[in-house]
Specification:
The chain has 459 residues and is α/β, with parallel strands linked by helices. The protein is 32% helix and 20% strand. The chain binds xanthosine-5'-monophosphate.
Length: 459
């Protein structure tokens, strides 16, 4: 059963959509303001998306298709990031001044920092100083003295931008220039998800077999998310059992697709802080075609819910993450109604500005690459080997493609959150736990809109 096979029936709404509470959990100890996790995929989740998503109230899982030290670096960048978005706007002191002038005009900014190759802010280029500059000259000749803000002074940077002292306030760390705060970010109504020390939350993907990586990430990261295609495997379960003994961060087990898989996971692991549910239901997955096996996300979530009921486990102590195939808020509402606490998405976020892949222009259109982690390209990156191992599996189980560019992730997430609130409202729930109780599904026939009967809550 997948997202298109069912529909939610409307119910008596106890509140207005804007009053619907969509806070939830990504794992036992990690609360989120928006129930959305970015999937650990190398065209999606690196530090930039992780920062934006955590500021907006969700959480990203940094992919592991890179050396472990590099993955740790991504986690640290999120943890050390100030609680405001920093935009990567800067010019080189050796740029031609007329080019900088034109770029400032098209960005709608009156100023921007000049940053040299070592990351040092050498001055501020101000549009008013460049109005009459000639095209051969370097911008450095016309620059105002540098002005920077350390990480501790980010609030001051925001205030200065809001009062119009400058349009792009450069923030620096010991390592050099980090980015600028502009008005858009300074006034953004962020609802960040923060750890006990007030830093942004972030998760990281690990293979249960890579204990060394898990231990390296453990002290810095909030959640270790298991990243194997088939967690219900005797060797994987043994390795995961050891991993949870030797780490302290929340551990989300997955991917799983069946009730038995969840039950076995609980019986073998002394700690399970979340369940990543869904096998081969993703938008770029070809596993079901290659192997003839799948557990579509909605079905997998319902299986997990059933298992938790049988085990007597509170669903907020082992939140179910619906992973794969979510195309928008409508699918997410169905996943939540089936028992998920949050959804994990790759495709939905791959086209955003902050997603890890670069933008590509073809003709007049802008795209971003998006690929499965078991696609040829991803497999060729060395560290994908242990997810869909070439040793045990010699076939590709994912495709590579392009998705339309969607702009800043903020737009996507805000739309997603509004859609969720509307969906919960229609279904007659004022919160996600209430949706679990009240949701009523109906099965659709192939003729869109035709019901074959209703199913109360259980799928
Ligand atoms: P969406 O639909 O959100 O799905 O893009 C993201 C999820 O898809 C899984 N994934 C794969 N599954 N072959 C697969 O069968 C792959 O190459 C592949 N890459 C990612 C993964 O669970 C991810 O979170």
């Amino acid at each position: 059963m997948s997202f298109d096979d069912v529909i939610l029936l409307p119910g008596l709404a106890p509140v207005e959509p804007w009053q619907v509470d969509i806070r939830s959990k990504a794992s036992r100890n990690v609360e989120v303001n928006i129930p959305l996790l970015a999937a650990p995929m190398d065209t999606v989740s690196e530090w930039r998306l992780a920062v934006s998503l955590a500021l907006l109230g969700g959480i990203a899982v940094i992919h592991r298709n890179m050396p472990r030290e590099e993955q740790l670096e991504h986690v640290r960048r999120v943890k050390n990031h100030p609680l405001v978005e920093l935009r990567n706007i800067a010019f080189s002191p050796s740029d031609e001044c007329c080019r900088v002038r034109d770029a400032l005009r098209s960005l709608g900014l009156r100023d921007a920092p000049l940053v040299d190759e070592s990351g040092r802010v050498t001055g501020i280029a101000r549009l008013s100083d460049l109005l009459t500059c000639s095209c051969g000259g370097r911008v450095a000749k016309h620059a105002a003295p540098p002005r920077t803000y350390s990480l501790e002074r980010v609030e001051e940077a925001k205030r200065d931008v809001i009062r119009g002292a400058l349009d792009a306030a450069p923030v620096v760390s010991e390592a050099g220039f980090l980015g600028v705060v502009t008005l858009n970010e300074a006034v953004a109504p962020y609802k960040p998800v923060l750890d006990e020390e007030g830093r942004l939350r972030v998760a990281a993907a690990v293979s249960p077999f890579d204990l060394e990586r898990a231990k390296l990430l453990d002290s810095e990261v909030d959640i270790l998310v298991s990243d194997v295609a088939h967690f219900h495997n005797a060797n994987v379960l043994s390795a995961a059992a050891r991993l949870v003994k030797e780490t302290r961060a929340d551990f989300v087990a997955g991917n799983l697709g069946t009730r038995e898989g969840v039950v076995d996971t609980f019986s073998r692991l002394e700690r399970v802080d979340g369940l990543r549910m869904g096998i081969a239901g993703g938008n770029i997955c070809t596993t079901s075609g290659v192997a003839g096996v799948a557990s579509p996300t909605l079905h997998a979530v319902a299986e997990a819910r059933q298992a938790l009921r049988e085990l007597g486990v509170d669903p907020l102590q082992a939140p179910i993450i619906a992973d794969g195939g979510v195309r928008g808020s409508g699918d997410a509402v169905k996943a939540l109604a089936a028992g998920a606490a949050a959804v994990m998405a790759g495709y939905l976020l791959a086209g955003t500005e902050e997603a890890a892949a670069p933008t590509i222009r073809i003709g007049g259109q802008v795209f971003k690459p998006y690929r499965g982690m078991a696609s040829r390209g991803a497999l060729e990156r060395r560290h994908a080997a242990d997810r869909y191992s070439r040793v045990s599996k010699k076939v590709e189980e994912g495709i590579e493609g392009l998705v339309p560019y969607k702009g800043p992730v903020r737009r996507v997430v805000e739309e997603f959150a509004e859609g969720l609130r509307a969906g919960l409202g229609y279904a007659g729930a004022s919160s996600i736990p209430e949706l679990w109780e009240k949701a009523r599904f109906a099965r659709l026939t192939s003729r869109i809109g035709a019901f074959t009967g209703t199913v109360r809550t259980r799928l």
